[in-house]
Write a structure and sequence with these properties.
The complex is a heterodimer of chains A (about 150) and B (about 130). In chain A, about 75% of the residues lie in helices and about 0% in strands. Chain A contains four helices and no strands. Chain A has helices at about 20-50, 55-65, 75-110, 115-145. In chain A, helix 1 (about 20-50) packs across helix 3 (about 75-110) and helix 1 runs parallel beside helix 4 (about 115-145). The longest helix of chain A has about 35 residues, at about 75-110. Chain A is elongated, with a radius of gyration of 21 Å. With about 130 residues, chain B is an all-alpha fold. Chain B has a single domain, classed as Up-down Bundle (3 helical TM bundles of succinate and fumarate reductases), CATH 1.20.1300. Chain B starts with 5 loop residues before the first helix and ends in a 6-residue tail after the last helix. Classes of the chains: A mainly alpha (about 150), B mainly alpha (about 130). The interface between A and B is medium-sized, with 33 and 35 residues.
């Protein structure tokens, strides 16, 4: 769409005081995009590797979850493992945040929850939920020895 | 912009008359995602190990393979709808927009098909555990 740059735009993001409702609104979009690309690729790789062979699955497993002590790539794998855990924690949080803001959208879709205090509380609750749920899931993964 | 004139319609401006349906499908797939994703996360966390044998044996059950196929269909459909809006909002140049939307469709259908085929191959016993 062409636009005459000489004409002024109405002020948009810059004039508002940021609140939880604005934060979770853009987070819904950002986490959705992260899940679609990051989550989509890793999930597909996991399933395709499992369907190909044990060896193909081991490649996935050693690069993402746990490095192979006998491999010449052990050092590189250990490094990627750390990155993969950071990405994994990020994607877990993204999933729970997107899930919570999605449920919040369902509520807003019915026309409820637009009162200022209720709306603010709902937005804050989505963040509280996503952080708590991420901590719980990773605590279980670590406690059961699945990732470390 | 399209004001409903004949010329506006020829130029493809104005409503495509499919917005409400798009919005509704986004909600329907979201509701399915919510249920299926909670099932998936709980299942993965509950698996004692996630090595090849464990995953293959797990996927052999119809009560795992079928929900997982449904999860793939629902989430990839949802991601296609969501990223479409994302692209339409942020990619303004018409040629780039069409190109990125095509890329999105290629990505979603390729990954979705790979996932479904992989699940079914394991479920039908095509992979030795």
């Amino acid at each position: 769409m062409s636009r005459n740059a000489a004409r002024p735009l109405s002020p948009h993001l810059s004039i508002w005081k940021w609140g939880p409702h604005m934060l979770v609104s853009i987070l819904h979009r950002a986490t959705g995009t992260a899940l679609a690309i990051g989550g989509g690729v890793i999930f597909t790789w996991w399933l395709v590797a499992a369907a190909m062979s044990g060896a193909a699955y081991d490649v996935f497993y050693h690069w993402i979850v746990q490095s192979d002590q006998t491999s010449m790539h052990e050092g590189a794998q250990a490094f990627v493992n750390i990155l993969a855990k950071l990405v994994g924690i990020g994607l877990t949080w993204s999933m729970f945040q997107h899930m919570a803001t999605g449920v919040r959208h369902f509520v807003l879709d019915t026309g409820a929850g637009y009162e200022l205090k209720t709306n603010r509380m709902g937005a804050l609750l989505t963040i509280a939920f996503s952080i708590t749920a991420t901590l719980v899931v990773w605590a279980i993964l670590i406690a059961t020895g699945k990732v470390f | 912009m399209g004001t409903g004139t004949g010329l506006g319609r020829v130029r493809g401006l104005g409503s495509a008359k499919s917005g409400a349906h798009h919005w509704w499908l986004q909600r329907v797939t979201a509701a399915a995602n919510l249920i299926l994703m909670i099932w998936f996360i709980v299942s993965i966390v509950r698996l004692p190990v996630v090595d090849h044998q464990a995953v293959v044996l797990w996927l052999k059950s119809p009560l795992v393979a079928v929900p997982l196929v449904l999860l793939v269909l629902s989430t990839f459909w949802h991601m296609r709808l969501g990223l479409q809006v994302f692209i339409e909002d942020y990619v303004h140049e018409e040629g780039n927009k069409v190109a990125v939307l095509l890329l999105l469709n290629a990505y979603v259908f390729l990954c979705g098909a790979l996932c479904v085929f992989s699940i079914l191959k394991i479920a039908f016993g095509g992979v030795p555990a």
